[in-house]
Amino acid sequence: MRIPARLTLAALPALALAACAPAPIYKPAPDAVAAVPAQVAQSPERYANGSVIWGGRIVGVTNYADHSEIELLAYPLDGSQRPKANDSGNGRFIAVMQGYVEPLDYPAGGLMTVSGRIDGSRAGKVGGAAYVFPLVRVAQAHVWSADEMRKGHPNVSFGVGVGVVR
């Protein structure tokens, strides 16, 4: 079977762009929860011990004697599991990590993706407002660098314009 040259040429740009996108970093578990943090906060018992891959913008880090907690404003993830920070937020959650976490490695405003299990919830506050935070016991976590966030987003644009040559 012979593939027409026009079809081959039309497919090349799509293949080139797909090759630029990084692969997902975590494999979803069979019991993966499809709900976002705002939904889980409404009925955390329904999602108890469910597996999640969530991400978002780091709000802050709190260290305790035996663990650390990172509060995140959740965002939807792209196909590479990078938070889509230009999208609307999906609530907040707390990533619970064993041991000490260096706050400089998890800077406020940074983007992060975690893989773990829902481990209940905790009442707290966002500013002066009462809030229920789902807790995620983290198995794996990744803070995204600016370079990683740009990968897969081509710096190519198309347009119509007028140019002047001198």
From TrEMBL:
Swiss-Prot/TrEMBL keywords: Lipoprotein, Signal
GO cellular component term, pick one: outer membrane
InterPro entries recorded: OMP_Slp (IPR004658)
Signal sequence residues: 1-18
Protein name: Outer membrane lipoprotein
Organism: Fulvimonas soli
